[in-house]
Design brief:
Layout: H1 3-11, E1 16-20, E2 26-31, E3 43-48, E4 56-59, E5 65-68, E6 72-75, H2 81-92, E7 103-109, E8 115-119, E9 125-127, H3 135-141, E10 154-160, E11 163-169, H4 172-176, H5 181-185, E12 195-198
Parallel strand pairs: 8-12
Antiparallel strand pairs: 1-2, 3-4, 3-7, 5-6, 8-9, 10-11, 10-12
Length: about 200
């Protein structure tokens, strides 16, 4: 079966979510996008308006922090860019008597978001997509399932605190081309450090 073609067609339709307008009628579905949270290894650009000496690109350290002039150490782990903007603005407040300059934080390279796919896939390995992906997209990046893969028992291994948690995912109906709404709604997004196992 040509899984690559099937996956390509499904990926366009999977992360869709219907919206309801104020009149109560359902409008065309739009992609459901998740805001990006900062991971260790990401390159982040910080721009302080009117202060060119404070503009810089920083790499998030393995502990999820980075140092910024006049502010000190900034904790960025799992935070949104707007959270970091607020933290830097608070840190700069004591340095400015009147108006604190506006701070803008953008993710230049989301290289910290990494996951692995192992088991019976055509191209197992580690992947850095630069955006959030769901388990079906991860399987596609790994070349799709190999022959005799048990796609009804896919597992995502995720670090939670000091232990590993296994999230079971059933992809057999999705890959056959007749997914139910429940199958599509149950496609979890991957987090940094996840490992997808295809038995």
């Amino acid at each position: 079966m040509a899984y690559g073609i099937l996956l390509g067609g499904l990926l366009d339709a999977v992360p869709l979510q219907a919206q309801t307008d104020t009149a109560g009628s359902t409008t065309q579905a739009t992609p459901s996008l998740r805001a990006y949270r900062i991971n260790p290894g990401d390159d982040v650009e910080v721009y302080v308006w009117g202060e060119e000496r404070l503009q810089r690109t920083v790499k998030i350290l393995p502990d999820g922090t980075f140092s910024f002039p006049l502010v000190g150490q900034v904790d960025a782990l799992n935070k949104l860019p707007r959270d970091i903007e607020a933290e830097i603005s608070r840190g700069l407040k004591s340095q400015y008597r009147e108006n604190v300059p506006q701070v803008t934080v953008t993710v230049r390279a989301a290289t910290g978001l990494q996951f692995s796919v192992a088991g019976k896939v055509r191209a197992p390995g580690a992947f850095t997509p630069g955006r959030y992906v769901n388990v079906l997209e991860a399987l596609s990046m790994a070349g799709g399932p190999a022959e005799f893969a048990d796609v009804g028992n896919v597992a995502i291994l995720r670090k939670s605190g000091g232990r590993l948690v296994a999230i079971k995912v059933r992809l057999s109906d999705v890959l056959k081309g007749n997914p139910s709404e429940r199958d599509l709604a149950g496609l979890p997004q991957l987090e940094s450090g996840d490992t997808v196992i295809v038995p």
